[in-house]
Amino acid sequence: MKESIDARGLSCPQPVLDTLAKIEAMGSGELEVLVDTEASKENVSRAVQAKGWRVESITEDNGEYCLKLAGD
Amino acid sequence: MAFRDLFKRIAPRPRADQRADRGLLVFEHTSEVIRAEQILKSAGYAVKVMGPPPEVQKGCDLVVEFPLMEELDILRSLKGAGVAPMEVLPVTGPLLAPVDLFQVKDFGQYLMVRAANMKITVEKNTRVIVNVSGGGCPDVPYIAARLIGCTLDDAPAPRDIGHTLCGYALELAHAEMLRLCSP
What we know:
Strand content of chain A: 35-45%
Order of helices and strands of chain B: HEHEEHEEEEEHHH
Shape of chain B: globular
Helix content of chain A: 25-40%
Number of helices of chain B: 6
Number of helices of chain A: 2
Oligomer: heterodimer
Structural class of chain B: alpha+beta
C-alpha cells in the first residue's frame, strides 16, 4: 500500500525528519511526500537517497511539490 | 545520564558581569570577522565568534569576543594583517553581553544545531548527518550533498569545501555539533 506524508507548512528539518521516520517504519515500499518549498524538496530528496531509497518522480503544482519515493 | 551531560548541566554560561575581562571586536563585514578569527586563533588567542549584543547596532551580524588583557597585542596583530576592527568594546554589563550563535533543538532521535542562518541535523545513535539546510549561498547544495549520509567523523569539514558565508556558518554549526556529540 502506498503511504503518504503531508509536510506542507513545516519548516526544515521537520519534513526531512518526518520522511526519515516514515521510511524507517516502512522498511520498503512507496511513499508520497508533499512539501511546499524548493529547499524541502531538495533536502527530502537528498536524505532519502542517503538512506538507499529512490526518488521516482517530482511534480510541481503551484509552488507545491509531490515527491514519489520508493525503497526496496 | 552520561557524565558529560551532568558536566554540561552544572557549567552554566558565564553571566555578563562575569565577562568583565572580555571585549568585543566589531567589524563592518562578516568576511573580516572570519579573517580576524583565523588570524587570532592561529596566533593562539582565546577568541570566539558570537552574535553582537542588541546594543551594538553597527557592523555585521558577528563579533569576535576576546580577552581584554590582550587587547593591545590583538589589535597590533590585526592591524598588521590589515583587518582592523571598526570598534573595540569592553563587555561591561548585561546589555553588552554577546549572544550565543547557536540554537540547539532536540527532536528525540535527532539533534539539530543552528548557527546564524545554517542548520545541521544528525541522527544521535549513528552520528549520521541527515540534513543540512538554510542559507542562500550557491555552494550550500554542494556542501549538503557532500555531508548528508556521512557520519560526523567521516564528513568533510564545511570550511574545506565551502566558499561562502553560509559555508562558514555551517562550519560553526558542524563544530558545535561535534562538540555536543563528542564522547
